[in-house]
Amino acid sequence: MNNFKGDIMSLPTEIINEQHDRLKQWVSRILRKDRLAHAYLFVGRSGSGKKELALYMTQALFCPSATAQTEFTPCRHCVECKRIEHGNHPDIHWLAPDGSSLKIEQIRELQREFSYRGVETQKKVYIIEHIDRMTTQAANSLLKFLEEPYSGTLALLLTEQKQRLLPTIISRCQELKFPPPSPKQLIHRLHETYPLPLASCAAHITADLEKASHLCEAEWFAEIRSLMIQLLQEETGFSLHQGFALIQDRWLPLTKERDQLDISLELLLLWYQDLLYSKVGLEDQFVYIDQTERLKKRAMYLSKEKIAEGIEHILGAKKRLHAHVNPQLLLEQLLIRLQEG
């Protein structure tokens, strides 16, 4: 009943990034002081490192090289570490939702496993993803284990939405919060699958790995990004006639949902942010990394004050968007203000 989904095998070689060094130190500290609890709740956004630390912590428990002399650091190269990494260890069970939720049958099977001794050791580890997606029956069933844990058993519960959990489950776990990944870290993760220009923009729009991945996969996102470049690439600006035509013929048809329109404005904002970076010599911070020369050329025609005014206009448009202003009117007014700038 391993229920391993194969996600761990796709993780980067350096599974714990720099901002999680303190969490590795925390693992070493609790193992050195023999203060391992029976259940931990890992809380953080997708891509924040919850699964990576769960893997690291499990390897630290089973790796023969993880001793007091090595600060309980797993070698990650031995047979035990490799079996854990590939989901082949009989005393470690990785559980993920079956469909949209964790079902009562999954938790019951897990409970049966709880009652058995370890196959190869006296330790057993259960890593449960998206614990917030449990059905009510499943949550109540899991609560029984958390109230009366079996000796030598460790449960690592992973969630992005702590607020959806039963308070009784939260109270019986030690909670660990994970900061969201930086744009640079997220770009690295995304670029393993998606083109770098798309990964860069998506990573600066959301810190959620799953949402950023969906953006990179969405055809409309790539097209609206290209439209922003087309709209703003001319050294002397864009004509209102061309701009209005693009709004009606391409921008609005690509962003039928209000959240899509908001993301398109975010892409526009990132372009202006890059223009400002160009003015102050921070080209290495560009989001539109494939448009470096075009951005530099465009920035030559604008003062820092005018770019700042453009940013204010875009932020104002984003605010009015949520006040349910007519989208076409909003974009046309924004284009006029940017043209005047």
From TrEMBL:
Organism: Caldalkalibacillus horti
Entry-linked InterPro entries: DNA_pol_HolB, DNA_pol_III_delta_C, DNA_Rep/Repair_Clamp_Loader, P-loop_NTPase
Alphabetized Pfam families for the sequence: DNA_pol3_delta2, DNApol3-delta_C
Signal peptide positions on this chain: none
Reaction(s) the record says it catalyses: DNA(n) + a 2'-deoxyribonucleoside 5'-triphosphate = DNA(n+1) + diphosphate
Gene Ontology terms, MF aspect: DNA-directed DNA polymerase activity
EC number from the UniProt entry: 2.7.7.7
Classification via SUPFAM superfamilies: P-loop containing nucleoside triphosphate hydrolases
Keywords carried by this UniProt record: DNA replication, DNA-directed DNA polymerase, Nucleotidyltransferase, Transferase
Top-rank EC class of the record's enzyme: transferase
Domain (DNA polymerase III delta subunit C-terminal): residue spans on this chain: 254-339
Name of the protein in its database record: DNA polymerase III subunit delta'
